[in-house]
UniProtKB/TrEMBL annotation:
InterPro entries from the UniProt entry: AFP_Neu5c_C_sf, Aldolase_TIM, PseI-like, PseI/NeuA/B-like_N, SAF, SAF_AFP_Neu5Ac, SAF_PseI/NeuA/NeuB
PROSITE patterns: AFP_LIKE
One Pfam family, short name: SAF
Membrane spanning stretches: none
CDD domains: SAF_NeuB_like
Annotated ranges, domain AFP-like: 294-353
SUPFAM superfamilies: AFP III-like domain, Aldolase
Protein name listed in UniProt: Sialic acid synthase
Gene assigned in the entry: NANS
Domain of life per record: Eukaryota
Coiled-coil intervals, chain numbering: none
Protein's organism: Apteryx mantelli (North Island brown kiwi)
């Protein structure tokens, strides 16, 4: 069982805690603060635990040539990649406004710090936890500095190898024990054959003392629900108000009705996981009374007969008698009354039966 820790104030993850569901708004807000607020409200209304954004300090995330390169994609918000990213980037004051709005709505708020200076700002903003995007998971200086801030960390693992994830664990664990890994494949939209949910199991074996989760970029909700059934303690999915909007992430995002269905399905699966103890349950009693079978006399059995297997069969009987699993135990026992063919074999018909005394 994965160790649990407090990811957000009053909200723990891991162990037997419910799955923590992150609605990744990212930059699907189109650079519009009002849309961003609508998406925060939507995430809350759909039952997500956290609304998450992506914060970059562009001159620290990209070099000059990367920002100056032409960007002619149909998803572009500017002639260069820098202009495109600046259109989608909220200011520090806007982030403060969004965080305040999330508090008013009643949903946790955080962001992926896409570079070290963004992490510094998010630390100042007092987000409950840091999300490490897949692009920074093998950025070891960044990881070390982020871990030293002392806030819980959720670390995605897209584009990484198991060897790299072992290195990440060895770097972060001694500094900050409150972190988890998310299985992730960095493709948008993600095809089912590239999801590799079995990595969740591999992570659970390799890192048994931290929670393991799933960050999905597939379409639909089935795979994310399956991840929870496999033990994912955190699930992150991109969300949008409209999949047809401009932007490369929208197609791999969930619209409000899908997010609501995902949350509902996850909570249903969590209930269904239940107990590992197999036993007759109270809810099964009615069916057992109606359809449960008993041991029945296959032939007439005179008083004093020692039972053999060929004298017995199994049917739905009235009244109830010995259950079918007791049939072999009845062989060799003696009956003390006459039993007609097709009658139920009851305890009262057997020698050595002790009548219960009612007080």
């Amino acid at each position: 069982m994965s160790r649990e820790f407090e990811l957000c104030p009053g909200r723990r993850v891991g162990g037997d805690q419910p799955c923590f569901i992150i609605a990744e708004i990212g930059q699907n807000h189109q650079g519009d603060l009002d849309i961003a607020k609508r998406m925060i409200r939507m995430a809350k209304d759909c039952g997500a635990d956290c609304a998450k954004f992506q914060k970059s300090e562009l001159e620290y995330k990209f070099n000059k040539k990367a920002l100056e390169r032409p960007y002619t994609s149909k998803h572009s918000w500017g002639k260069t990649y820098g202009e495109h990213k600046r259109h989608l980037e909220f200011s520090h004051d806007q982030y403060r406004e969004l965080k305040k709005y999330a508090q008013e709505v009643g949903i946790f708020f955080t962001a992926s710090g896409m570079d070290e200076m963004a992490v510094e700002f998010l630390h100042e903003l007092d987000v409950p936890f840091f999300k490490v995007g897949s692009g920074d998971t093998n950025n070891f200086p960044y990881l070390e500095k982020t871990a030293k801030k002392g806030r819980p960390m959720v670390i995605s693992s897209g584009m990484q190898s198991m060897n790299t994830m072992h290195q990440v664990y060895q770097i972060v664990k001694p500094i900050n024990p409150n972190f988890c890994f998310l299985q992730c494949t960095s493709a948008y939209p993600l095809q089912p054959e590239d999801v590799n949910l079995r990595v969740i199991t591999a992570y659970q074996s390799a890192f048994p003392d931290i929670p393991i989760g799933y960050s999905g970029h597939e379409t639909g909700i089935a795979i994310s629900v399956a991840a929870v059934a496999m033990g994912a303690k955190v699930v992150e999915r991109h969300v949008t108000l409209d999949k047809t909007w401009k932007g490369s992430d929208h197609q791999a995002s969930l619209e409000p009705n899908e997010l609501a269905e995902l949350v509902k399905a996850i909570r249903t699966v969590e209930k269904a996981m239940g107990s590992p103890v197999k036993q007759l349950l109270p809810c099964e009693m009615a069916c057992n009374e109606k359809l449960g079978k008993s041991v029945v006399a296959k032939v007439t059995i005179p008083e004093g007969t020692v039972l053999t297997l060929d004298m017995l069969t199994v049917k739905v009987g009235e009244p109830k008698g010995f259950p079918p699993e007791a049939i072999f135990d009845l062989v060799g026992r003696k009956v003390k009354i006459n039993i007609e063919e097709d009658e139920t074999i009851t305890e009262q018909a057997m020698e050595n039966h002790v009548k219960k005394v009612k007080y």
